[in-house]
Amino acid sequence: MSNSRTVVQTKSLRVGYNKKSVVEVVDIEALRGEIVCLLGPNGAGKSTILRTLSSMLSPVEGTVYLDGENITSVPKGKLAKFMSVVLTDRLNPGLMTAFEIAAMGRHPYTGFFGKLKNEDKEIVLESLASVKALNLADRYFNELSDGEKQKVKIARALAQEPELIVLDEPTSHLDISHRIEVVEILSKLCRDKGITVIMALHDIDLALKGCQTVLLIKNGKIVAHGAPEKVIHQGVIQDLYDISEARYDDLLGSMEFGGSRTSDMFIVSGAGSGIPVFRTLRKTGLGMDCGILHQSDIDTHVAMSLCNKLVVESDFQRISDAKFKEATEIMANHSIVVDTGFPIGETNEKNTQLLLMALDAGKDVYTFRNKESQNLYQCLDKQPIYCSDASELAEMIRDGTGQKEPRIPTLVTAAS
Amino acid sequence: MQGEVETKRAARRNAILIMLLISMVLMFLLSIALGSVNIKLADVISILLGKDSASDAHQSIISKIRLPRAIASMAGGVCLALSGLLLQIFFSNPIVEPYVLGISSGATMFVSIVFLGGYTFGFSATNPMFMFIGALVGSMIVMLAVVLAARKVQNIVTLLVIGMMTGYLCSSIRSIMSSFASLESLGSLTLWTMGSFAGFTWQKVKILAIITSIFAVLAFLLSKPLNAMLLGEGYAQSMGVGIRRFRIAVIIIASVLTAVLTAFAGPISFVGLATPHMLRMGLKTADNRVLVPACVLGGALTTNLCDLLARTLLAPVELPIGAITSLFGAPLVIYMLLRRDSGL
Fold first, then answer.
1. Phi-psi region of B155 (alpha: psi -120 to 50; beta: other; left: phi over 0)
2. In whole angstroms, what separates CA B102 from the centre of its chain?
3. Chain B contact for A83, CB < 8 A?
4. What residues in B contact A100, CB-CB < 8 Å?
5. B94 near B158, Cβ under 8 Å?
6. pLDDT tens-digit profile of A183-230?
7. In angstroms, what separates the C-alpha of B340 from chain A's closest C-alpha?
8. Does the model's ipTM exceed the 0.85 cut?
9. CB of A86 within 8 Å of any CB in chain B?
10. Which alpha helices (H) appear in chain B, and where do they start and end?
């Protein structure tokens, strides 16, 4: 068996129900030991594709080849030894133990009455062990948690000793640790046993990080197919799911809600110090402009979703005069400026100038810096307002933003 | 660990099965001994073993009345329990059985047609084979209708209502036909439509026993795919079960078992539902290799018991057996519907 053997291949396949195709031209190729992931919104046809690949549904057109053989000409028994499935159907098998469920996987191998030989029992126990569910063997399936049930279902599929496992949304209903565990288990099976996995997933993040090939499916078409690194660019996921209220950052693999349209303050941040501030302020309904960030600063990724105006400098460059000017112009419109307590170095030195200018111009400057150890503002008469975390800041601004008069920060400065 | 618990469970299962077998045999003897004339158990045994007995009257009671009735009620119980079990797996649902789904009613309607038609057209409608064939046609028709309905509606309560409505439909057609029937034919028909094991001839007993035995064996042979079906059709198919053939086999076996019982004893409710359910709980297993034989023992035991109660409880008045089975069965259905998510 060569390592690059093609396990599944489809030729000009169209899948659907009752001769009406749901997804056009499905070209899938899965190599041995590879994880192929189907991503797409609900109703895109992922399950239809999986059902066709696992021979529960006849293709509307075209052919599925398993190991080079047309799936329709493979006898049922042989097919069952080649491929097993994990479906979304809720299992309600009555009084069956986890062991008995997993042992069902031996169905294609056992005799007329399905009696398990010792060898079969060993394989079942081994399957349970490889999903770390050996301790569940004697418990009744219906008493297990969703995560445990899913593991037992995968163990059942494994006990079938397949070369290919087809899974429909194996991580839905699971908490984050079980989701990770399931994908881990599947990756391990692929690596160690050379099993090929084809599955539909809703966890974009897990899909991109856990699989070798992704298929993006939308509106009955496969819109992209290939390695996640090649297929996923900024905006692809957002388009795939038609996300308009939020922004999905592909590099970080995280989602940010859109920010408020109003601009209530100017934020000077950097090196991740801005992220909790942006998020907290957005939740309280406050909008913001931000600067001056470097292109690849982690703050930039989040600020792109949450801030209205954003001044960005190229990576590893000192802040240019042009950008500085742009930032001062934006800042001029604001009476509130926030210093997130970012680290100061050679390339972003000008940000400190911005803050001092703001303070000098009589703006309210809120800072997260420690008053004693980071004496950025000591050279000035006017003093900023010190606060300890983002929620305190939001509270202070909410109480203060109502006042039209320039606010004199008495509370904190009185002490100094 | 795995082996130990499993061995314990298996030992428990075997103990229960043996107890069922013993109870069934005792019940069989008891049902022959008890009645308007009580016969000593020792006499019953010696008569059954063909030894000369003291009383000719006893011998005649046993061979002409009680023995056929005991065998019929036991075989009938097997039919009910097994068809209940098969349908429960087929519909992936613990609350179905031939009576609840209206299949018995379909059989009853067709038997009535044969019965009344026979009087009208003068052929021998009481020929057991005719009655069986009529019942089979009826149960098959309703069965297929319910299967089609089940593909459209997934909801079990809807399915139950459809079954009940089918039952009403069949009985109203039957009533319309009865109004054309003669009084004399009506009397025996009415008793029969309420379900009763009274008046079984040996000819009927033979047909019932033979057909029941054959189809019980066939049901047992289906144990492995039946087990696979416990996970649902998708999984069963992916494990190599030929779904089409399997469905046809289950429909035929369940219909024949329902038909043969209904043809001779009328529709009997809830045994098909309660027996598999109680056995599953008692044996703590869903494995059909255990449940099929257990249903044979349990079905025979419960139905024979219910029949005994029906004829002795208010003796000399004989109750229809359906009255007894519904008395226990209907509350059980309500109970099961209420705690449906209990993982049955």
1. beta
2. 14
3. yes
4. 286-287
5. no
6. 888 998 898 888 999 999 887 878 887 888 888 888 888 888 888 878
7. 11
8. no
9. no
10. 2-33, 41-48, 56-61, 67-90, 103-121, 128-152, 156-178, 183-193, 202-221, 223-229, 233-238, 243-265, 271-283, 288-312, 321-338
